[in-house]
Amino acid sequence: GNSVTQMEGPVTLSEEAFLTINCTYTATGYPSLFWYVQYPGEGLQLLLKATKADDKGSNKGFEATYRKETTSFHLEKGSVQVSDSAVYFCALRVDYKLSFGAGTTVTVRA
Amino acid sequence: DGGITQSPKYLFRKEGQNVTLSCEQNLNHDAMYWYRQDPGQGLRLIYYSQIVNDFQKGDIAEGYSVSREKKESFPLTVTSAQKNPTAFYLCASSIDGAGAGNEQFFGPGTRLTVL
Description:
The structure holds two protein chains of two kinds.
Chain A: E1 3-6, E2 11-14, E3 19-21, E4 23-26, E5 32-38, E6 44-50, E7 56-59, E8 62-65, E9 75-77, E10 86-94, E11 97-100, E12 104-109
Parallel strand pairs in A: 2-12
Antiparallel strand pairs in A: 1-4, 3-9, 5-6, 5-10, 7-8, 8-9, 10-11, 10-12
Chain B: E1 4-7, E2 10-13, E3 19-25, E4 31-37, E5 43-51, E6 54-57, E7 64-66, E8 76-78, E9 87-94, E10 105-106, E11 110-114
Parallel strand pairs in B: 2-11
Antiparallel strand pairs in B: 1-3, 3-8, 4-5, 4-9, 5-6, 7-8, 9-10, 9-11
């Protein structure tokens, strides 16, 4: 079956630090890969996506590259801000179904 | 504004009562989904619908029911058969159910607490 494993949190960083959240997947077929972000008490928002191998998704300073050889889709940001504090979910999609990782809570301190 | 609305934001019910959560979208999306989120866990799919008058069970459908009588609406009923209904429920929609790159758009969620 399809599954996503992402780095356990919580992660606490200082402002302007470098952020990496690891995500690896197992899938049958050719998945699309996504990163979603959830702010406290809210639904999920799409952060970025990649639909095929070697694609790089980017948005708001975040980046992730679809690595088929390592079945990974790690999220990175070079300089985080307090407003980046949230829960980040890695997900894959095959056909209709999204499969999510457990989420990584990130807290950025001023 | 286009989007997905869920109501209410917070819902309290007594054990043994059925409760229906509302989900409406005005994005003209064909596919709609219900997920359940528990603390420290990812989202788990309850039901999904690719077109009006059709829906399929997800991974954790037991104790839940849905209907899809209109394209824009996909209500979820949490029945008394659901053993642990207290959770955060998220509704989502996408242009269609099959497009691999099509993103799912999420509503703000309903937090259900069973007392």
